[in-house]
Design goal:
38% of the residues lie in helices and 11% in strands. The protein has 367 residues and is an alpha/beta fold. Helix 5 runs parallel beside helix 6. The chain is globular, with a radius of gyration of 20 Å. It starts with 19 loop residues before the first strand and ends with a helix.
Length: 367
Amino acid sequence: MNVIRPQAAPGRPLAATQGLVDVDIHPRPRSINDYEPWLSAEMRERLNTFGIRPRHGFVKGTPYFKSQPLACRRDAWPAEGTPASDLAFMQEQMLDFHGVDIGVLNPLQPTAQGDQNNPFSVAMAHAVNEWQLATWVERDARLRASVVVPYEDPEASAREIRKRAGDSRFCQVLLMSRTSHPLGNPKYWPIFEAAQDANLPIGIHAFGYSGWAMTNGGWPSFYIEEVSEHATSCQSLVNSLVIEGVLERFPRLRIILIECGFGWLPSVAWRLDKHWPMLKSELPAMKRLPSQQIRDQIWVSTQPIEEPPRPEHLLDCMSWIGWEKILYASDYPHWDFDDPRTAIPSFIPEDKRAAIYGGNARKLYGF
């Protein structure tokens, strides 16, 4: 919502009495070479020679990274580097200004999570995780890291998760919403098993490098189509997690949908509930109603929050999802950053606002 920081006095949002927890902060390196201390000589050479090669087939090397325009707030650029690449600047503009108690880091790019070369993707995931600790978490106790995994190599992803298990500096596993197969596919089950064993939620953030267009008919012409598609890609992955049996096979698994909206979630659940009685012979192992699986094991974040003309429609939607399943997210430093002082509509009851701003996340993550 805000592209320029408001000049009003800083402070906690109203009702954030349990401490403000932001589940979506995007750190970024000043240079792609910042990852080099945790890469082997072979992988450093690959990074600098060939760059990051997502499954879309687009080569994103060092020169591109340095010149890439970022979809960020105009006031989020530090004196040196790119938005969210300078800890002191982030502390002043976000953590201190808004009174953030805990911020969850979700590195999006350049991480090579979906790189065409699996060994390189594995090496980069390890490097990004070490970079999060050294550059951010160990320098500010308010920050927590996400376990970045090379999700198209599930066995390697499971090893990375188990390596980080028990380290309180990491609070979740990070996946993207667009994967090369539907996310419930058994291919990805080693990731879910490792996350459940490590007692780590899985945060699924919008975007990703599947190698496929996000629409049924090819690549869209406009950015607005892509950001609107975040919801549909998540509808597909929710369907897949339910139908493939992931949520029942891993009953302690917790899924967080980040930057995907949530107004669509009840209707997806209703549709699954409608079809299941007629087609349940195809799914003999499924025991729980699809909507119950979704309400038990899926959380959502507030950015972007749908705001229909009639407030009662939003209240109905949030009530169906479950007030305890909604988490505050700022999306800092992106252009659609949600200021915590204004992000949660004032017509939402104060006790529920407090839970969204911090209490729900504390229970989910165990902060």
